[in-house]
Amino acid sequence: MPTMADVARAAGVSVATVSHVLNDTRPVLPHTRQAVLDAIDRLGYTPNSLARSLVTARTRSIGLAVSAISNPYFTEILQGVEAGALEHGYSLLIADPHDDPGHERKVVQLLHERRVDGMIVAPSPDPRGLLAYLRRHDVPTVFLDRLVDDGAAPHFDQVCADGAAPTTRLVTHLAELGHRRIGLVAGRPGLSTTSERITGYRHGLAYAGLAHDERLIAHGDSESPGAERATAALLDLAAPPTALVTANNAMTIGALRALRERGLSVPDDIAVCCFDDFAWADLFTPRLTAIAQPSKELGAQAVRVLLDRLAEPGRPARTVRLDCAFVHRTSCGCPEQLPNLPKGTSQS
User: Largest CB tally within 10 Å, which of 146, 238, 301, 311?
Assistant: First the structure.
């Protein structure tokens, strides 16, 4: 197995110069750097990660703490984080906090003890213990998907999608179709995603000139079983909704299960629009009208923001918001939209 000394001899430089190229510990002339990289490639040299971490005090690893990794939305976020990390030569350590504040605090500490260079965390509904630990140990951290209220001068970078405006879009679309009682199956209380989507729901009602009825909001706790119970509660109202907005993909499944158990047809008996598009949303009958979040890009963006923080620790914290897309299908009650055909083409 080739050594760093072999690389130095092949490139005609000192071992120290090879070390500086590998570890970015000192500027190296471009032609010298290229000679070292060519020698590494030619010899098939593999750097010793442990030795490098001792020199640089970095492990080139990122800790990712995300609950419900089995959820397709978070799976796609994970794919984005992994791709962004690998692109920049970082490995990934993954933990599931299970949305439990105590467990969250423990897994973040375990990741920190593994000497990750920084962390990407989707915080729980009560992140106070998490925030205290990260502040006390000054851990470079990016909060992903869910925002935290960190006071007037935020200490942490954050990356998320817009939650309010897309929900408003769903509600106003249903109102334009004639619905006057629109229910919301909301997520777990305490999450920023839940509060933003409730805000968007209320704005949508206001824009449509509809009265807000608190009874039309039921919390599904961001999970399918909870959404099934929440939907059943909405259907049991004396004046049940004629349309539903579900606030994430897992809750959409629960809501549809509850509607099926009541023998209700979508959209003939009740219209449905959902926040979160997913791979099989286009395969349902009817096809689901949805808000698509840029999940992979959210993960990749979180890595970029974290690397910026590692490169410049003193920079002001920032919050990056990405836009969502409205995917218009048929569960809202609209007819199937046929693709545009070339002129002169007949439909039969």
Answer: 146
* Sequence-separated (6 or more) residues with CB below 8 Å from residue 55: 19, 23, 25
Q: How many residues does the chain have?
A: 348
Q: CA–CA separation, 110 vs 104, rounded Å?
A: 10
Contact indicator for 271, 179 with CB cutoff of 8 Å: yes
Determine the Cα–Cα distance for residues 180 and 315; give it in Å rounded to an integer.
48
The stretch 182-198 carries a mean pLDDT of 96
- Among candidate residues 78, 86, 89, the one with its CA nearest the CA of residue 298: 78
The dihedral through the CA atoms of 82, 83, 84, 90 has a sign that is positive
Which two three-digit tokens encode residue 130? Answer: 């998490």
Predicted pLDDT of residue 50: 45
User: For residues 104 and 112, is the Cβ–Cβ distance under 8 A?
Assistant: no
Tokens representing 346?
């007949």
CA atoms of 311 and 62, how far apart (whole Å): 14
Distances (CA, A) of 53 to 59, 95, 308: 5, 22, 19
Q: Is the pLDDT of residue 58 over 70?
A: no
Which structure tokens are listed for 266?
Answer: 């979508």
User: Contact, 133 vs 141, CB < 8 A?
Assistant: no
Distance CA 84, CA 278 (A): 21
Residue 223 has a pLDDT of: 93
| pLDDT > 90 in the chain, percent | 72
Q: Give the pLDDT confidence score for residue 153 in this predicted structure.
A: 56
Q: Are 217 and 171 in contact (CB under 8 A)?
A: no
What's the average model confidence in pLDDT over 12-32?
Answer: 83
- pLDDT for 96-123, tens place per residue? 999 899 999 999 999 999 999 999 999 9
Pairing verdict, β 141-144 and 289-292: unpaired
On whether the CB atoms of residues 330 and 285 are closer than 8 A, the answer is: no
289-292, strands of its sheet edge to edge = 217-219, 182-186, 243-246, 271-275, 289-292, 325-327
pLDDT of res. 345: 44
Alpha carbon 33 to chain centroid distance?
A: 37
Lookup: tokens for 275: 């926040």
Q: Comparing C-alpha atoms, which of 242, 238, 201, 239 is closest to residue 219?
A: 201
